[in-house]
Design brief:
Helix content is 35%, strand content 22%. The chain has 505 residues and is of the alpha/beta class. Strands 16-17-18-15-14-20-21 form a seven-stranded mixed β-sheet, sandwiched between helices. The protein has a six-stranded mixed β-sheet with strand order 11-10-9-12-13-23, with helices on both faces. Strand 3 (36-38) and strand 4 (41-43) form a beta hairpin. Helix 9 crosses helix 10. The protein starts with 16 loop residues before the first strand and ends with a strand.
Length: 505
Amino acid sequence: MAPAATTNGVIDGVNGSNGVNGHATSKKLQFETYHNIINNELTTTAKTRHGINPAAVQPLPEVPVSTQEDVDKAVKFARAAYKSWSKIPIEERGQKLREYADILEDHKDEFAKLLTQEQGKPLAQSYIEFDMSTTWLRAFSTMEIPEDLIEDTEDRRVVCRYVPLGITCGIVPWNFPILLAVGKIGPALYTGNTIIIKPSPYTPYCNLKLAELGMQIFPPGVLQALSGEEDLGPMFTTHPDIDKISFTGSIATGKKVMAAAAPTLKRVTLELGGNDPAIICEDVDIDAIIPKLAISSFLCSSQICMMVKRLYVHESIYQKFLDSFAAHIKGTMKVGPGNDPENFIGPVQNRMQYDKVRNMYAQISQQGWQPVIGGDVPPSDPADKGFYFTPTLLDNPPEDSKVVTEEPFGPILPVLKWKDEDDVLARANDSKMALGASVWSNDLERAERMARRVEAGTVWVNSHFEVSPIIPFGGHKWSGIGTEWGLNGVKAYCNAQSLWLKKKV
């Protein structure tokens, strides 16, 4: 750790002004230094730390290590800001989100390059994540949250309305730090709450700059961000004056978040891990679906909760499919640094994940699994070579093997045979995780029938990993509680209030 300057920089919150064709203009940010954003001030801490560029295992710039005092200050300012922000009409709050999206776009190249630097994903994928983020903000900003008319008689009218919760905290993971932060910022602010973003210690940089940019649009205390170490999350989840935690991350940590939130009865939304099955029927066009399945299995080095993690292929086409799938991956999915446009698979994001995935690769020979491609175990110490793995397909490992029952969160995929429809659905559902799943068939009636029997929060037919800001997303079983996005997800940042209106005294 390096000591940081103790003097706090102060910048007043400035509203973005309308530029050409109503596009909000912004003051350009610099991307060399990084601060906490508390009450629209750039602040630092006595102690700092730094992230690691996973492509070269090299240190990135210093960031603050927040303390309980910093958290208390941010919460105090968020509570003060909530009193006025919640009273602003929702249409005006939506306009602020659109202005925020505008000035975010003014920094598109800087954010995309920074995302590749801190997360490791290829630059083209960073641009996609960035574009999704501005699309999500604009979609949230125009959602209608109608009052539900429950009863209207001569005697009374009863409506259910949706009112903000208060102070919210978004705990953001390291795999999609821009989109998943924006996916919490948008609904929280649109519904009249204030929010504090807590980035992953592994990827704090984009999140801090998102909040710094917000200083140009939002009043002090409305959008804040604090970076820190592993002890920062519990400071938020146990804080007595925070009303909601929105957490995206692992099942193990999600359980800790829920337990920590219980004494103060915080609302929680938990989007947790997945072990998504994809079921391939015998009537598919193999050449047509393989490129889609390859992306849905190996995007972001498979470090996405909704990636295909178990691939069930009908036995009558199994070998042909497996050979074609392996050839496609070998021919199109190059491994290397994200700043090289030839590469599709970058490094895994951090040393902790590298060690976990390496352990899974080490079991290939120990357990007798049969790799079709890949399978090489990288060195235990990658030094400055980066956290890389070759994409690996395993030929029909046992159903109870670790690579089938657990979520590797790395580019290793078991391909499994099936024959009987009831049997494959039972196998697909035999998991504590139930985030997503897909069924692939040219017989749409059959595919839908099968899809309706799958236990998962999202089930796709003839696709996988399609998401939209207007469609709720969440898990069943141990894959989460509640939903993000869509009207359901936006309402999760509200309390329902039943309003009884007697027409006669």
